[in-house]
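Weekly modeling sync, notes
Attendees: AB, CL, MP (scribe)

Item 1: holo prediction request
CL wants a bound-state model with SGN before deciding which constructs to order. AB pointed out that an apo prediction alone won't tell us much about the pocket. Agreed to run with the ligand included and paste results into these notes for async review.

Input as submitted:
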Amino acid sequence: MNSEIRTLSLLGLASVAAACSTGEKKQEKPNIIYIMSDDHAYQAISAYGGPLAKYAPTPNLDRIAQNGMRFNRCLVTNSLSGPCRAVVLTGKYSHKNGFMKNEGQAPFDGTQQTFPKLLQASGYNTAMIGKWHLESDPTGFNYWEILPGQGNYYNPDFITADGRKRNEGYVTDLITDKCLNWLTQAKELKKPFMLMMHHKAPHREWQPGPEELKLYKDITFPEPATLFDDYSGRGRAEHEQDMTIAGTMRLIEDLKLYPDTMKSKNVGLNRMNPDQAAEWNAVYDPIIRQFYESKLSGDDLVRFKYQRYLQDYLACIAAVDKSVGKVLDFLKENGLDKNTIVIYASDQGFYLGEHGWFDKRFMFEESYRTPLLIQWPGVAAPGSINSDIVSNLDFAETILDMAGVEVPADMQGRSMVPVLKGKTPADWRKEHYYHYYEYPAVHSVKRHYGISTDQYKLIHFYYDIDEWELFDFKNDPGEMKNLYNDPAYDSVKEDLHKRLKDLMIRYEDSDELAKSFLPAK
Ligand code: SGN
Ligand code: CA
């Protein structure tokens, strides 16, 4: 131990001793609130800037960025809800935690090691409220209350240890109220707490809440440059997906354009009580009427669908933003703001018309990157911005480290605490490994794995087609140009192939292992 470290550790012991001798009951460990929404694109958070920021600002999410750190490149390991949630809990890739897909998949093995269990064992009071999506009951929580599966927007059912019950109200408001109630009790316990607050919004099919029904109905949003991407020069994966606004997005169910004859089939509307339905119809009926009169087709129809999509999607986010504001206000009003870390993330990113798409799954930036904002008073500098490659693989390790709990050696990510302090270690990762498995399935995105650096991406669509793609997203931010067969990139390609192999070895993944997860033919 060098003399500087020795002095510091002695000082640490001295302050603990002083606190004990005065009988002070000072809570040393920080409280942690992890807020996660579902399918929230960073393009739809004004703190990230971008063309939508001035049309659909998110002032409360921006408060977290102003109070703390905004991460520009937080990458997910497998861009899908259930798998991302399992990675967050375990700090391990899907092939290690066993939860690789949403569908056709055994429930999450809740007997395995998770960060909430480790926090709980170290004396934290823990809770999980909202979308869970892992099929088995939550473990490692003093309290939990979850939506069944994807859950409903209006008057949703919730499941607790005591069973399933319908709740009247809008899902985002209900989750917020439940969280504030839990926090009100938790603050009395003189124990550090950790809350996972998981919103359903803004997941498909994007039903806005009663207070935001009209919010964006008269706004015309800017279109992304690649709304009419024809995937030329790229492979079968891009050509054969099923997630376009033009073809896949449903006028009726997704965009709520129910003709009179089909109104009774509106599942969302059918769940509403008469007052909610009346407010809904008052806003949507004129839009429906106008749409069927306009007889749009071709590119005009795509443009209309894009606008309709964003109006509802962004209105769902406005309610999430308000919810975040309520949590931040609660912390302040109760004197908890200084000792509570607030983390905001989405389970993964999302396409808002880029490449003509909605949904996620692909290793392209919009769905590979998830928003991440963290406020940690006294530690993360207010208004700081970080562009290192961090990952949802690091969340468990980071939260444990924040709480002063040892990070188990078998977790595969790394604590971001030094990064939050503005001191990224010299040996921080320079590349990231991705692996997506859910195929054949909804949206038909073929299985792929790959590596990303801060400039290039090498992707292998394996099994079904065995095609490679290479992108230089610094010079081609839209990722429109597949450079894999361009001889000018031979050395880049060679380097990436080598590094990809190294990552697969490090994380104990391989083509052979991946193939073994395929159903028998
Ligand atoms: C549902 C959606 C899909 C979405 C998956 C997974 N269809 O199946 O569009 O990709 O969930 O989403 S819907 O018509 O039922 O809304 S995830 O975020 O849970 O992974
Ligand atoms: Ca999701």
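Recorded for review: The CA atoms of residues 88 and 205 lie 25 Å apart.
Action items: CL to compare against the apo run; MP to circulate these notes.
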